[in-house]
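hiii so um. not sure if this is the right channel but i have a protein structure encoded as tokens and i wanna go backwards to a sequence. like what aa goes where. can anyone help
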């Protein structure tokens, strides 16, 4: 049995901190009192036990109270809101026969599609209809879809706000609003569209906000949207799953590509997600490793939506072995059983390292996160070690040892680094070491 008590405050909210009175006694799906149809769907999909966030967020959401739930990427937040949403619809009578009852807002098209796919697993065969409303797709088709009185809408905020402003549907009967990946939503600057949507949603709704991180900006954002929410935070946002092995190879920047292709080829890695810091590097690297005989595509924000969808699908289906992505494009993407993540360049924001390597080792499966670190990136590695509160062993791979005679030599790149640090208002590595 689980008890919880207000114990501490997170960003100004009383946080319900859970503790086990009886150790080793975790909640099962059957303990939530879910409708039998919902239970059989869960069983049919092969989910035997709720994840930690599901154990806490599902009963909390089922009380009808507003909720903020944060837990690391890959911890199962999607079902933590789909299940209580389905339960609500099955059990409660609709306020209005025509208006949508549940709205799920997602920051990106890829994430919206993923959530929609999961939702469809639950709505297929039920009396409930779910629709997906995304930017970049045919507006008139969407108008027709909205006219069919769906129960669930999964949408990106911009396009949904457009439809609302043109009166294509109404949200007066909305009972449940879900904001997923709220931190990314803020990063991408959706606040205005969300405010616009909010004006059309009844105050009496329940609001659930999910996020990989919970900080002051989320707190501020949530203040205007949620009423007296329960707050559930699980895991430090910077925690790396135990199931992910982290490997660091120190190598000169100009030999990284060669080493990467060598590793993918010699170890026969079939599905590798590779991160770069910039779109340009992502494109260049994808081209280069193709030349090395490894099928690769890039994924970043400058690509058309069609190209992004294709790249992701090809990667998921195993038609390309390597997907080279930037942080924003890859955020939250869920690839079942992805085993290998490579940091071709370390991220400037140390927390992004955790998000990146969280693409593997999901739902307890094992994964390998390899970082190729050039000597001039060591300051970034130090920052990452601080964030994850762990030391990462740097290794040299025979034949790819860094050329130490180069160290300190490239005045030009050091000036570049200084300029970049100034631009990012980051201390230089020297200043960091002094601290
Ligand atoms: P998050 O939104 O927290 O990043 P997701 O909801 O995308 O995580 O879930 C990550 C993966 O875990 C998905 O592949 C999902 O199918 C799987 N998953 C979710 N809940 C469970 C569960 N109870 N048991 C096993 N796997 C689960
Ligand atoms: Mg998610």
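sure thing!! here u go:
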């Amino acid at each position: 049995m689980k008890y919880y008590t207000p114990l501490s405050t997170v960003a100004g909210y009383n946080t319900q901190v859970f503790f086990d009175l009886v150790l080793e006694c975790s909640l099962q799906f059957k303990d939530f009192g879910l409708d039998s149809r919902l239970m059989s769907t869960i069983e049919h999909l092969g989910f035997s036990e709720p994840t930690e966030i599901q154990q806490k967020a599902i009963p909390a959401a089922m009380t009808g109270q507003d909720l903020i739930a944060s837990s690391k990427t890959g911890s199962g937040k999607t079902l933590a809101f789909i299940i209580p949403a389905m339960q609500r619809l099955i059990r409660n009578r609709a306020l209005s026969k025509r208006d949508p009852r549940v709205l799920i807002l997602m920051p990106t098209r890829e994430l919206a599609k993923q959530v929609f796919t999961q939702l469809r697993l639950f709505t297929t065969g039920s009396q409930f209809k779910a629709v997906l409303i995304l930017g970049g797709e045919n507006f008139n088709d969407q108008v027709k879809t909205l006219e069919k009185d769906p129960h669930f809408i999964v949408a990106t905020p911009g396009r949904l706000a457009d439809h609302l402003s043109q009166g294509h549907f109404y949200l007066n009967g909305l009972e449940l609003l879900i904001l997923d990946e709220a931190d990314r939503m803020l990063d991408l600057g959706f606040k205005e569209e969300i405010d616009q949507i909010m004006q059309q949603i009844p105050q009496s709704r329940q609001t659930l906000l999910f996020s990989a991180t919970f900080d002051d900006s989320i707190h501020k954002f949530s203040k205007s949207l949620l009423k007296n929410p329960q707050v559930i935070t699980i895991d430090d946002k910077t925690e790396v799953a135990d199931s992910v092995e982290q490997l660091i190879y120190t190598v000169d920047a100009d030999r990284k590509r060669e080493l990467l292709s060598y590793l993918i080829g010699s170890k026969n890695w079939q599905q590798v997600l590779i991160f770069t810091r910039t779109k340009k590097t992502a494109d260049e690297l994808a081209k280069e490793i193709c030349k090395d005989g490894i099928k690769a595509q890039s994924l970043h924000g400058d690509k058309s939506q069609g190209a992004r969808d294709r790249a992701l699908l090809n990667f998921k289906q195993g038609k390309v072995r390597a997907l080279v992505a930037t942080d924003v494009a890859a955020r939250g993407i869920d690839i079942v059983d992805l085993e290998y993540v490579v940091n071709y360049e370390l991220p400037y924001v140390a927390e992004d390292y955790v998000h990146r390597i969280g693409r593997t080792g999901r739902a307890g499966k094992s994964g390998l996160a390899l970082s190729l670190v050039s000597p001039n990136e060591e300051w970034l590695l130090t920052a990452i070690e601080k964030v994850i509160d762990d030391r990462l062993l740097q290794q040299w791979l025979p034949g790819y040892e860094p050329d130490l005679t180069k160290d300190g030599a490239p005045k030009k790149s050091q000036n570049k680094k200084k300029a970049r640090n100034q631009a990012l208002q980051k201390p230089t590595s020297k200043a960091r070491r002094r601290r």
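oh and The two ends are 46 Å apart (CA to CA).
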